Amino acid sequence: METRKIQKVGGSTFTVSVPKEWARRQGLETGEVVRLYTHRDGSLIVRGRQTDGESLTSVSLSVTESSADAVERSIQGAYEAGFERISLHADDGFTDEQRRVARTVGRRLVGTEVLDADADRIDVRAMLDASAVSIRQSIDQAVSVVSTMQETVREKLTGDVEPTGQVSDRLTDVTRLVALIRRHYNRSLVTFGELDALGIDRVPLSQYDRTANRIEEIATATVRLDSAIGGVALEAADRQAIATRLTGLRSALEEATKLVVEGGNAPAMSVEPSPLEAQRQSAGEPQDDSVDPVRARIFDHLTRIDDAVRAIERVGLQSAVRSGQSW
Fold it and tell me: What is the pLDDT of residues 190-199, one digit of tens each?
């Protein structure tokens, strides 16, 4: 780090010199124009000739695999990286299935449009205006979807009411919201105006990104939990124990994300293991023949959900500490 004194020129203009070595590395000479970016957090960024965000204007990717998944991964990855225009090309051409998947991904991701899906080229445009995006609202929506997913699993376990929809159908809703958050977080690392357009500071955005990743983990584990439960006959007491545990985890998730998004002095929730998990812990290692593999998977999925919730709690606690709140 270097320090500089602010000078006053002409009675009204403040000036500050830039490091000579930095100017040389940027290829700058006397009389050239640099770009200044002021931010809501009080920082001032100086850039040389490169236009802000220029590297995210477009990207061209070669798809060498013939699978539809290769197209989906390429579009999703470039979208989350923050690119505005994504071009895919394949030497052997794209199959009908690959072009269909490209259109499906384009409809799924927020703010994207498939411009062309020809035999040898796929063009996707992602031009979502950051000023129209609310990262906090996206977090809230993702948590709401996950809560609905977990409530559906609970309904299947208890049989109190007829389950509303399939759990796996809602996973896409979570992943599209998480992809949106990742996109803007990654763009903020390259495009200095992104933070101002989003109306958020760098540290909170980083916390939201970490939280979103954990929410996606919880959603995935919930889908797998639902599948595991459907593959084993459980006693009524066991089903109730899992349902109770899941209800506690859902409440903890809602409270943890509230800490991240809103702050506050509410203590972090601690969710105790269910009797079924205690039974597993006393049963020994997973390779123990006395442990039903399907039951072991159920326990593992619950543990993964619990770990992700606790990780979000830690992010919320960090936010509270930074704001000077007491616990």
Answer: 887 888 899 9
Helix locations, the chain, DSSP H: 20-25, 68-81, 96-108, 135-158, 171-188, 193-198, 202-229, 236-262, 275-283, 293-322
Q: Select from 170, 147, 121, 135 the least CA-distant residue to 305.
A: 147
Contact 174, 142 (CB under 8 A): yes
How many CB atoms are located within 10 Å of the residue 300 CB?
16
Q: What pLDDT is stored for residue 232 in this prediction?
A: 79
Cα separation, 179 vs 216, in Å, equals 10
Mean per-residue pLDDT, 213-225: 97
Is the pLDDT score of 257 beyond 70? yes
Cβ–Cβ contacts within 10 Å for residue 100, how many?
Answer: 14
CA 21 to CA 269: how far, in whole Å? 52
Question: Is the four-CA dihedral 227, 228, 233, 235 of positive or negative sign?
Answer: negative
Cβ atoms of residues 157 and 239 within 8 Å: yes
At 14, give phi and psi (nearest 5°): -95, 140
As a whole number of angstroms, the distance between CA 59 and CA 19 comes to 33
Convert the pLDDT of each residue in 56-66 to its tens digit: 899 999 999 98
- Residue 170, pLDDT score: 94
- Which residues are bridge partners to 117 per DSSP? 122
End-to-end CA gap in the chain: 35
